[in-house]
Specification:
The complex is a heterodimer of chains A (155) and B (420). Chain A has 155 residues and is α+β, with helices and mostly antiparallel strands. Chain A folds into two domains: 4-63; 75-154, Glutaredoxin (3-Layer(aba) Sandwich), CATH 3.40.30. Chain A has seven helices and four strands, in the order H-H-H-H-E-H-H-E-E-E-H. Chain A has helices at 4-15, 24-35, 40-50, 54-61, 83-87, 90-101, 143-154, and strands at residues 75-80, 114-119, 131-133, 136-138. Chain A has a four-stranded mixed sheet with strand order 2-1-3-4, with helices on one face. In chain A, helix 2 packs antiparallel against helix 3. The longest helix of chain A has 12 residues, at 4-15. Chain A starts with a helix and ends with a helix. Chain B has helices at residues 17-22, 27-33, 37-47, 59-65, 89-96, 98-111, 126-141, 172-179, 208-220, 222-226, 260-267, 301-306, 325-339, 345-363, 368-384, 389-403, 405-414, and strands at residues 75-80, 116-121, 157-162, 203-207, 237-243, 250-255, 277-281, 315-320. Chain B has a four-stranded parallel sheet with strand order 3-2-1-4, with helices on both faces. In chain B, a hairpin with a 6-residue loop joins strand 5 (237-243) and strand 6.
Chain lengths: 155, 420
């Protein structure tokens, strides 16, 4: 939920812009932070702040891969599945992650801790195979290292 | 060799304004502001700098096309939406030395008479985005950004835009749509961004690495900078990357035109023990494969084009002998089918079709006729799509059919993958 204070700040930000629509991506990120994902309620709030129809927000939200219109876990694990990580054995690591978490791609663990998603090249090819947990980057992954990371990130 | 772009990388953190200035930072801007915009454009043209995003368009030429006659506002956009698989140069550049991109943007804005600059960065680069935002604030406080910069009469504001995923945002007109709060589909050209771009105003757009070179061109002069290349006719230095099963994967600033072999074997350290070199993508997932017989090619735009590939971003992905070339292309097409913006049919529907045939070949269930269908589809998609996305998706597949035909056919004839 947006606090009243946050709503006020965001309204001021939008009011300072010549073209309020240009704030939509920022607002969706903000809403996602506050609501956990871009729920219908969050999308309506974004539309209200930017003074655009909610369909406009949905049009954008469904385009961007990092805006989630469905609930996700507390942390999203983004596994790079592009070419350099593929060369370095990403496919096996993906299987290992699915196995450890007991979920398939796109799934969320039953405790709500993690959602598992593929992501296109995260520019960490020098430490491939790589993944991100939330904003944190992990490279030179091995099955053992992944187990440690999961334990640490779950806490 | 004299390091320019990477000279502050040893710090191990984003160079502060103080550190950046101590290494000569903002002297390029000071020099540029004493020149006329036309002279700055001429200097950049004479330097031979070409776009580092992958297409290699001459930067000075691009700037000279910007409509500076119509009344403003004009815009200058920096593309830091680095999402070309295998590429990590802009991440390094911004995480280590954010002011360099800002100084480059200010000079670029001065030359093209832009009053507002945007740095468009992908959301995943959160550390880089924060470093940029801090650097913008530092530069503002120091009088490098804002009104009447250094008493020159030139004013420019800079904003950092954090995106939310999708490769297509890196296409220049799609990026403009994204910045305007629309879906990042490409626009038809004309009108060209130089006259009607962001907000339908004259707009110039360059890659982050391109812009980062500008301060050095101003400081060293066009000929001084140009002479840093590895051969006569080349220009400046270039960030080259190596990834895959090599001993020393990483990013290296080298003279433009350094041979591919040297980049992989000397700087990348050569193949790891137990692995041998099979082929490489020279500059991202959209660049055609280079086979071992062409390894002495100089890594610059024209030379790599002459051997049927493209230098692209200059970040090399190495395939070793355990990589099945068909599976590598399946992985590539997985990326492109997922990232297609859906705007045009050849890309939206054609790429999944290509992906599917590749999977059938790999699984050993395709027949020789399907190889023809694959080829025909690539040739149809290539010239008929709306932007450069789909040609970039099928170009490596076409190169596979040229260079690794035997391996592809072996999948079909033996009904199994010969590697795995």
């Amino acid at each position: 939920m947006f606090s009243d204070e946050r709503m006020k700040k965001l309204r001021e930000y939008v009011a300072s812009l010549e073209h309020p629509e240009e704030a939509l991506v920022d607002l969706m990120h903000e809403a996602q932070e506050a609501y956990g994902y871009l729920s219908d309620e969050a999308a309506e709030k974004v539309a209200e702040i930017a003074n655009v129809p909610v369909i406009k927000v949905d049009e954008l939200a469904t385009f961007y891969s990092l805006i989630f219109r469905r609930p996700v876990g507390r942390k999203v694990i983004f596994v790079c599945d592009s070419i350099s990580c593929w060369v370095m054995g990403m496919e096996n690591l993906f299987e290992h992650l699915k196995d450890r978490l007991g979920i398939d791609i796109g799934g969320t663990t039953s405790d709500g801790a993690f959602t598992l998603l593929p992501i296109c090249c995260i520019g960490a090819c020098h430490v491939a195979p790589a993944m991100m947990v939330g904003e944190k980057l992990y490279g030179n992954l091995t099955p053992e290292k992944i187990d440690e990371i999961l334990e640490k990130e779950r806490a | 060799m004299q390091l320019l772009l990477t000279k502050n990388f040893h710090l191990g953190h984003p160079a502060s304004l103080k550190e950046y200035e101590a290494s000569g930072g903002y002297s390029g801007l000071r020099a540029a502001l004493k020149m006329t915009p036309d002279d700055v454009i001429k200097t950049v043209t004479d330097s031979g700098l070409r776009g580092r995003g992958g297409a290699g368009f001459p930067t000075g030429k691009k700037w000279s096309l910007t409509d500076r006659k119509s009344p403003g506002p004009r815009y200058f956009l920096v593309n830091a939406d680095e999402m070309e698989p295998g590429t990590f140069k802009d991440r390094f550049l911004i995480e280590n030395d954010p002011h360099q991109v800002i100084e480059g943007l200010l000079i670029s804005g001065y030359a093209t008479e832009a009053e507002k600059g945007y740095i468009f960065i992908r959301y995943e680069y959160s550390g880089a985005a924060r470093a940029l935002e801090r650097a913008v604030n530092e530069a503002k406080s120091a009088g490098f950004i804002g009104k009447d910069i250094l008493g020159s009469g030139f004013s420019m504001e800079i904003s950092v835009h954090r995106s939310a995923g999708r490769y297509e945002c890196g296409e220049e007109t799609a990026l403009m749509n994204a910045l305007e709060g629309r879906r990042a589909n490409p626009r038809s050209k004309p009108p060209y961004p130089a006259s009607k771009g962001f907000r339908m105003r004259p707009t110039t757009i360059n890659n982050a690495e391109t812009v980062a070179n500008i301060p050095h061109i101003m400081s060293l002069g066009a000929s001084g900078w140009k002479a840093l290349a590895a051969y006569e006719g080349g220009a400046g230095t270039k960030l080259y990357g190596v990834s895959g099963r090599v001993k020393n994967p990483g990013l290296f600033e080298l003279p433009t035109g350094t041979p591919l072999k040297e980049i992989i074997e000397i700087h990348g350290g050569g193949m790891r023990d137990g692995y041998s070199f099979k082929a490489c993508l020279p500059g991202g997932a959209s660049t055609p494969i280079i086979a071992p017989d062409k390894m002495d090619v100089r890594m610059d735009f024209d030379t790599v084009s002459r051997i049927g590939s493209r230098m692209g971003t200059g970040c090399v992905t190495v395939f070793d002998d355990t990589c099945c070339i068909v599976r590598a292309m399946i992985n590539n097409l997985l990326f492109f089918t997922r990232e297609s913006c859906g705007w045009c049919t050849p890309c939206r529907d054609g790429l999944p079709f290509v992906h599917n045939i590749l999977q059938r070949i790999e699984a050993g269930v395709a027949d020789m006729d399907e190889l023809g269908v694959l080829e025909e589809n690539c040739e149809t998609i290539y010239p008929n799509s709306f932007c450069a996305f789909a040609p970039g998706a099928v170009d490596p597949v076409r190169s596979m059919l040229r260079l690794f035909r035997e391996e592809v056919e072996k999948h079909i004839k033996t009904k199994r993958c010969p590697i795995a």
